Amino acid sequence: MSKTLDPAGETLPAEWGGGVNKWPWPIPLLATNIATKPELVGHFATEQPDFNLRVPDQIRVEVFLKHFGRWVADREAGNDDMPNFILLRLGNDHTAGTTPGGPTPKSSIADNDLAVGRAVDAVSHSAFWDDTAFFILEDDAQAGADHVDAHRSLALVVSKYSPKTASGEAFVDSRFYSTVSVLRTMETLLGLPPMNNNDAFSSMMGSLFTGDGSQPAFSADYKNRDSELIYTANTKSAPGAKASQAMDFRHADHADTQKLNVILWKDAMGDSPVPALLLARPKKLKNDDD
Questions:
Q1: Confidence band, pLDDT 50/70/90 cuts, at residue 281
Q2: CB-CB contact of 180 with 202 (8 Å)
Q3: Which of 155, 187, 228, 241 is the most exposed place for a label (fewest CB within 10 A)?
Q4: Which of 126, 131, 177 is nearest to 154 (CA)?
C-alpha cells in the first residue's frame, strides 16, 4: 500500500464497496497484492487489504460480501461454488491505541464487531445457513488478564445447530479448549484428517453443535455506525497518545502489549486505578536447559 484515500468525502473504490468515504483519517489504498505461498495463488481475494489498522474492517467485510453475493447467485443457478473453507481476517480489534488522528479504541472495536455481524447476517439469511459454521476468535489473548487467567481468549461458534439453554439463551461452554481445538473441530466438519498429533489429540468442540437446527438468522446491529462511533478519531490529548505514536502498529502484535493494555484501560476507564495484573511485569527466567 502506498497511495491513500483522502479523509471524508472521497469515493471508495468500487471493489471496496464504493460510496462516499466517511472515515476522517487517510485510508491506505492497495497498490498490489501477491500470494505469499504458491498454494494461495488463485485462492485469495486480491482486492482484500492486508493488516493495516487504518483500513476499516467494514471495507474487508465489503470484499467478502461482494464475493458472497456471487456465490449466492451461482447457487441459485444450480452451481454451488462457494469454498468449503474461508478465512476472513478482521484485525481492527487489535486497535492502534490512541494514536492521534487514527481510530479510537472504541471505534476500532465497534468497527470489528459490526463487520463480524454483517458477515453472519448475510450467511444466516441465505441458503448457506443450512451447512455453514462460523468460528470467531482472537489470534491470542494479548496478555489481557481477566478474573481467571491472562491466557484466556474469547471464542464464538455460530451455526444453525448452535445449542440454547433451557431458557432459550445462548449456550456458554466453559470447558477447556485451545486454538488447536478449533482447528480440529473445523477439520472434522470438513472431513479432513488431522495434520499432526497436536490436533489429533486435541479436544473437539462437539457440544457446540448439539442444537436441533432451529437457530434463527442473525441480524446485524448498526447502531454504532448510525451513531458514527465507527468514524471517530483520537485527539492529540487522548490518554497515551504520545506513547501510542511510538508503537509499531504496522504488523500484528509488534506493539508493547503491556504498555498498550494500560493505554486501553485508561482510555476506557478514565482515572480508575489500573489493575495490578496489567502493571505486573513477568519475571525473566534464566535460560536453563535443565
A1: confident
A2: yes
A3: 228
A4: 177
Question: pLDDT by residue (tens digit) across 220-262?
Answer: 999 999 999 999 999 999 999 999 999 999 888 889 988 999 9
The C-alpha angle 213, 215, 217, rounded to 5 degrees, equals 125
- Candidates 11, 89, 136; CA nearest to 251 is 89
Largest CA distance in the chain: 64
Name the amino acid, one letter, at 243.
A
Among all chains, which residue has been given the C-alpha cell 448510525?
226
d(CA 85, CA 64): 13
pTM above 0.85, yes or no: yes
112-149 tens-digit pLDDT: 999 999 999 999 999 999 999 999 998 766 666 666 66
Residues 6+ apart with CB under 8 A from 182: 135, 137, 155, 205
Grid cell, residue 246, equals 511510538
Cα separation, 47 vs 49, in Å, equals: 6
Sign of CA dihedral 126, 132, 137, 139: negative
Contact 119, 61 (CB under 8 A): yes
SS3 137: strand
Q: Which of 166, 139, 150 lies closest to 279 in space, CA to CA?
A: 150
Encode 142-171: b = buried (16+ Cβ within 10 Å), e = exposed: bebbeeeeeeeeebebbbbbbeeeeeeeee
